[in-house]
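Query structure, 978 tokens:
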């Protein structure tokens, strides 16, 4: 055990940032090919570095996931994602970030060669996200960046060749020191402009404000000084180590030793002082411990307390806190490897915590289970055996295992084969030197083995390491290797065709055993609801609300920020669940596409992604979070068309719903793509979004948040000549319009259901009770059984479209059967539907979508159309509800969609409830059970949580309801507790 801990401690040191395996890249042009990336609105790789501005408005983070993220520090809200140029492999890994004290400029660097011989620092404008400058010519990677307190200088510490200092007025080089015996990992300025640096050569260096070295001393207490922090007055310097549990405090004048504290909870890789200098903080170095920060009183001389900072995850180094910074009003902000970040206030209370979006597959490398044919896997979200879940590619379904019951067992799932006669694999777990029959296997320097599996024929074995997947034969000869980033667990299917690896970025990937070629990737979000699976070419399948989790990164050259487009922008071409389902059968993506096309009648559109890229919108003004006092604002924005296709339409959204402005006019003196529009906003905090479209695709929404500071009751109305005027009136409550449709007694008796019509009536009756509460009036049209004909339903859709105004709320409730035709088009079945003549007798998805797009007010759909004939003794209708939900809930359509189930699950109804499980939970939630916060109001998010948990409880995990809400739609109340 002691040896294992020693190896792991060593691993933590070498795995950190720059010592990861480097894949050589050659000089030349950056790829223009689209690169598929994960996007979860959180980093998917460990956070090593962060930076905050002087006023503590912004937090900036950057990681090996090749993004830099700007957060609103007070709330943890993601404001902007900055995207430098990247390539496949290591190019674009961000190891360090710095924001200028005024919060205007963000610097980042790492393995950032941009296909050149030398490394670069990228400088971004924080507000616009534009890449405004590139500092180049670095002989080695940049480890650390920081601005001087006055913002006049930027220092870069290097993996070798010392440090460089730049003047920020023009970012010219003003000083450098190459006399370093190893890499430099940290630097800090004091209030007078003096600079201190650490180096793995063991020395601390102190420079005056002219950057002349005035002292160089061997660090006491350890051989590898890592972090350094000046006290607020510059009189002391705290040093943290990568190889010692001591924190040493040195004189800020001459680096003489003043006093020492022992952390006792791991190596203190992060240190800082409180903003008033009264307290000294040091972070832990990981190991098995929790997220702990130690705090000493009396300027670091006094007694200590341990502060738990976040949620624990298993033994893997993710608990390491590498960087902590003081906040101006007391307390600190920290980042760690989870990845996550948080804020501790001056009383050591955790007031903000932003946790990881990725699952963690460590803890048990034998816990990744797989079916014989490779189509079903079992994994854990928090360590392989914690929060277990199963995913079936064929059934398009992820099931959680728990909730006090067990789900139906799938075919037998097997752990990796660990033993074969004549193949003794030892010293492989968290090891630099795995062995076969006592002989070391050749790995690269600092490569750590985490997992292993033997092929079913016992002729080969697989190692999963920090750098590669490696397949060896039984003599130890390497057959193939492919680069990965930390293969936490591996397995091989019983038929021997597939290698499956669970990786550090939260993905699980399938590869061909014979040649290592990737076939499929799967990403389950850590919310344990959303998932997406995709092929190397980007054909994908996704659960409701999960399309935004992956997208295409497009480089725009070395000196411009990259573009990013979620796969939802290309749904019409790349949403192909039938292709995803066939990849493992064919072992060939092209063959899977061919077979899927034959079955569905679809044709693959042979078109370059560059040709079908949507426009890109940037809002110039008003600025995000600006205060407004009038309901009329002037919206200024630019629209860029990377594909060259002309823009065919502009849509303005207010809190996610469409607003109809006058046609946008060009801005004089601005670039040709600049426009402005007059927009009317509500008398409350609101979000304004702009969407542009061309003939191929719709843009990602550009959004600003506006803070209302005007007088209550001010409304805008038009005079006879059309001019806007203000008047003082009472703010009127919204009106609620409901179209509820439920079909149980189908004319086709084989489609009969038990409670669909009752579900529609019970929902309507429940919402009618909201009259005089949240809504000034509730008007409902209920269509059940013989009234729910195709014509009546179409008339109902037309009715709710005409009645709903921008100040109203519209709800559409559908209960009955839904099916897809062979071409994938979804139909809701009215009472008189003929499944052999769907186009003429069904309600096509296009009719539902057109209604959603046309509705002026907030729009909520409740869809319960995946009933199983097996449950009620009748035929079943199979519906791809995932596609329906994702399209309706996209930003351009703007609906909130509650779906009773996901994938190929069936919606369950039971005589004991006299309802379907979904409606029973929905009605209970609206009547008050969803009021978790005891505020008297039930919001979208609260209702989502209650329905999700209640339906799982009622159905013993057999049914998983989902909710999809566009990012442009804020959470809002839908009912008052009655």
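Result returned for the query:
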């Amino acid at each position: 055990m002691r040896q294992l801990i020693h190896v792991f401690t060593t691993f933590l040191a070498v795995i950190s940032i720059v010592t990861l395996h480097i894949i050589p890249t050659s000089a030349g042009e950056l790829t223009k090919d689209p690169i598929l990336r994960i996007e979860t609105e959180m980093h998917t790789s460990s956070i090593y570095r962060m930076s905050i501005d002087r006023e503590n408005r912004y937090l900036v983070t950057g990681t090996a996931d090749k993004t830099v993220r700007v957060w609103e520090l007070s709330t943890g809200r993601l404001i902007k994602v900055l995207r430098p140029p990247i390539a496949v492999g290591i190019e674009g890994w961000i190891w360090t970030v710095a924001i200028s004290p005024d919060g205007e400029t963000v610097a980042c660097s790492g393995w950032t060669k941009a296909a050149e011989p030398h490394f670069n620092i990228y400088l971004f404008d924080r507000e616009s996200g534009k890449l405004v400058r590139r500092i180049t010519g670095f002989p080695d990677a940049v480890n650390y960046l920081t601005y001087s307190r006055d913002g006049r200088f930027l220092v870069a510490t290097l993996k070798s060749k010392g440090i460089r200092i730049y003047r920020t007025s023009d970012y010219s080089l003003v000083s450098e020191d190459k006399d370093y015996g190893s890499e430099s990992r940290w630097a800090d300025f004091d209030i007078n402009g003096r600079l201190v640096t650490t180096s793995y050569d063991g020395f601390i260096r102190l420079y005056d404000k002219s950057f002349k070295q005035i002292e160089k001393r061997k660090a006491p207490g350890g051989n590898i000084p890592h972090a350094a922090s000046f006290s607020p007055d510059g009189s002391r310097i705290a040093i943290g180590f990568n190889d010692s549990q001591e924190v040493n405090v040195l004189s800020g004048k001459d680096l003489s030793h003043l006093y020492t504290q022992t952390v006792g909870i791991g190596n203190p890789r992060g240190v800082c002082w409180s903003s008033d200098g009264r307290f000294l903080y040091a972070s832990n170095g990981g190991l098995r411990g929790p997220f702990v920060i130690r705090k000493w009183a009396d300027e670091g001389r006094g007694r200590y307390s341990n502060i738990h900072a976040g949620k624990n995850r298993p033994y893997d180094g993710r608990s390491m806190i590498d960087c902590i910074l003081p906040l101006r009003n007391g307390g600190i902000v920290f980042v760690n490897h989870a990845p996550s970040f948080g804020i501790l206030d001056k009383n050591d209370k955790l007031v903000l915590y932003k946790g990881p979006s990725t699952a963690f597959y460590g803890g048990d490398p034998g816990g990744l289970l797989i079916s014989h044919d490779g189509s079903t896997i079992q994994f854990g979200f928090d360590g392989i055996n914690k929060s277990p879940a199963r995913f079936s590619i064929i059934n398009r379904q992820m099931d959680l295992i728990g909730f006090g019951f067990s789900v139906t067992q799938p075919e037998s799932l097997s752990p990796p084969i660990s033993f074969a006669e004549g193949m003794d694999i030892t010293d492989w777990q968290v090891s630099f030197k795995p062995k076969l029959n006592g002989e070391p296997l050749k790995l690269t320097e600092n490569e750590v083995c985490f997992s292993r599996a033997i092929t079913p024929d016992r002729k080969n074995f697989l190692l999963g390491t920090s750098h590669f997947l490696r397949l060896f034969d039984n003599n130890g000869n390497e057959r193939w290797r492919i680069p990965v980033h930390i293969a936490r667990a591996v397995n091989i299917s019983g038929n021997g065709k597939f290698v499956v690896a669970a990786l550090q970025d939260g993905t699980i990937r399938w590869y061909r055993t014979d040649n290592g070629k990737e076939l499929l990737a799967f990403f389950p979000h850590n919310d344990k609801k959303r998932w997406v699976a995709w092929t190397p070419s980007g054909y994908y399948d996704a659960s409701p609300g999960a399309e935004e989790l992956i997208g295409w990164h497009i480089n725009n050259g070395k000196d411009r920020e990259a573009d990013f487009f979620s796969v939802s922008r290309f749904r019409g071409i790349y949403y192909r669940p039938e292709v995803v389902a066939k990849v493992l059968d064919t072992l060939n993506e092209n063959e899977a596409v061919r077979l899927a096309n034959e079955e569905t009648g679809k044709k693959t559109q042979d078109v370059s992604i560059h040709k079908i890229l949507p426009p890109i919108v940037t809002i110039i003004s008003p600025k995000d979070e600006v205060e407004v006092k009038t309901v009329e604002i002037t919206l200024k924005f630019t629209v860029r068309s990377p594909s060259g296709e002309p823009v065919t339409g502009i849509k303005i959204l207010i809190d996610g719903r469409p607003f109809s402005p006058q046609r946008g006019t060009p801005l004089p003196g601005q670039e040709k793509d600049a426009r402005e529009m007059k927009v009317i906003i509500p008398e409350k905090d609101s979000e304004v979004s702009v969407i542009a479209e061309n003939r191929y695709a719709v843009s990602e929404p550009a959004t600003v948040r506006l803070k209302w500071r005007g007088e209550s009751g001010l409304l805008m109305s038009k005079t006879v000549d059309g001019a806007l005027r203000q008047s003082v009136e009472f703010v009127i409550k919204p009106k609620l319009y409901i179209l509820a449709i439920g079909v149980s007694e189908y004319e086709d008796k084989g489609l009969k259901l038990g409670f669909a019509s009752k579900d529609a009536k019970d929902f309507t009756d429940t919402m009618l009770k909201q009259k005089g509460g949240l809504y000034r009036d509730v008007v409902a049209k209920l269509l059940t059984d013989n009234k729910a004909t195709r014509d009546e339903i179409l008339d109902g859709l037309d009715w709710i479209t005409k009645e709903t105004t921008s100040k109203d709320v519209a709800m559409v409730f559908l209960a009955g059967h839904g099916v897809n035709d062979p071409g994938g088009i979804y139909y809701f079945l009215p009472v008189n539907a003929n499944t052999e003549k769907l186009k003429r007798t069904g309600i096509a998805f296009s009719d539902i979508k057109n209604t959603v797009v046309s509705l002026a007010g907030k729009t909520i759909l409740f869809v319960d159309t995946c009933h199983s004939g097996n449950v009620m003794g009748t035929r079943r209708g199979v519906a791809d509800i995932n596609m329906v939900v994702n399209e309706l809930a996209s930003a351009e359509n703007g609906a909130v969609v509650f779906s009773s189930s996901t994938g190929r699950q069936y919606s369950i109804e039971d005589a004991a409830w006299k309802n379907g499980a979904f409606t029973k939970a929905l009605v209970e939630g609206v009547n008050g059970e969803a009021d978790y916060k005891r505020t008297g109001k039930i919001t979208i998010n609260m209702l989502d949580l209650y329905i999700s948990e209640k339906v799982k409880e009622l159905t013993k995990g057999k049914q998983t309801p989902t909710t999809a809400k566009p990012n442009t739609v804020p959470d809002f109340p839908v009912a008052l507790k009655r």
